[in-house]
Amino acid sequence: MSNSKVLPHTNALNVENADISEIDESSLINYGDNNEQTDTTRTRNTQPQVKNHFIINQTILFVYISFFSIIGCFLRIGIDLVFSAELAHIESSTQIIVQSYFSNIFGCFLLGFIHRLNLKPGPLVTGLTTGLCGCLTTYSKWNQQISLLLVGMVTTTSQSQLSAICVITIGMLTYSCSYITGEDFSRWVVSRNVIKRQLSKKASTICHCCITMSLVIIITVLLALIFIYQSKSYVILTLCLSGLLAPLGASMRYVISMVTPKFDFKRKVVVLNRLPTGTLLANVLGSIAIAVCYVIKLHTHNTTTMVYLDGIQTGFLACLTTVSSFIGEVIQLRRNKPGNTGQESGNTASYAYVVITITLCLFCGSMVNLTSVNAYHELGLLSDLANMTNTGL
Fold first, then answer.
1. Is residue 157 assigned to a domain?
2. Cα dist. 149→141, 181, 295, 380 in Å?
3. From which residue to which does the signal peptide run (predicted)?
4. Tally of CB atoms within 10 A around 370
5. Is 20 contained in some domain?
6. Tens place of pLDDT for every residue, the chain, 393 residues?
7. Which domain, by its residues, includes 167?
8. Total domain count for the chain?
């Protein structure tokens, strides 16, 4: 009589999940001979399903990012208008409290709040963080105003270079404190079980449908407004164009963060391998592009061109860059868990990330802006140039 163990009747899926210690060699050979064709067929049928599932998930993800990016962009524009020289007379590109200062504070607070909730990863969380918070804050606009102070394009402020240093210092401190305050408030909310951390399957489906329909409605309305108010209202056209371009900027930032490889240094600078290269690259590219648009805008007098440039700056480029994610990554680098690298390595990486980002963005942006400074110096129109630095949404 054979010493081999008797296997219970099972299908292919059950055998695969069975304990390997309960199956002898002859049984495995038998199973392989009898089910080879079944496995091959099942694999072929599964591949298209996995691919389709991936495409559907990515589509839903970008729908969420697009929807919340439009909301974040409009919130930023609204907050900027409230605190700008037109209403509250607080924010100004010629002062230490620059434009988008308060929107950056609010965006960092909101991102800290969402991160500390520890929600289950999914389209909604990505939409809120990458879309809403990422577009509510803008690094390129902040960097551009500091760059204008550094190169002396703001003649209404004495010692503009010193003012630029103050803008950087005050900005980094307040943005970081805002993020941490958001985390603390989130802990208080979580301790009282106010927010559910996971949606049911039915609720998720309803949420997907509502977000998709809302996105379609918003885009349709924006396109309709552009068609109705073309050549009639500069502000409305710029707002609509900004809203339409916001999803493109946010989606591109998300893709850049996913595909950009980490640094691969060895020996002494191994700490740089921990830097978030995706956000770094997006902020550098956005800072260069917004400076280029600014220079082009100074040399054009065509209204249509001005509308497109303002829409690109306020919508696409402002959403391509982010302060909230940058600050969040800086703080997370400092919270390195004890291990091979240690806490000191985390602090070093955090400071290195701040210095590299600010230096690269300011250097690249200032090189572009200097072309306009030199040109206007030669023409004796630097005072006119200063009056143009506070324009735009």
1. yes
2. 13, 30, 15, 19
3. none
4. 17
5. no
6. 444 444 444 444 343 344 434 344 444 334 444 555 555 555 555 666 667 778 888 999 999 999 999 999 999 999 998 888 667 678 777 778 888 899 999 999 999 999 988 888 889 899 999 999 999 999 999 999 999 888 877 666 667 888 899 999 999 999 999 999 999 999 888 877 666 555 566 667 777 788 888 888 888 888 887 777 666 678 888 889 999 999 999 999 999 999 998 887 776 677 888 889 999 999 999 999 999 999 898 888 888 888 899 999 999 999 999 999 999 999 999 887 545 545 557 788 899 999 999 999 999 999 998 887 665 555 454 444 544 554 455
7. 48-387
8. 1
> To which H or E segment does residue 136 belong?
helix 134-136
In a domain? residue 180:
yes
Residue 200: exposure state from Cβ atoms within 10 A (0-12, 13-18, ≥19): exposed
Q: pTM of the full predicted structure?
A: 0.80
**In this structure, what token pair is assigned to residue 284?**
């550098």
Q: For residue 4, tell me if it sits in a domain.
A: no
Helices (H), 99-233: 101-116, 123-126, 134-136, 139-150, 160-191, 201-228
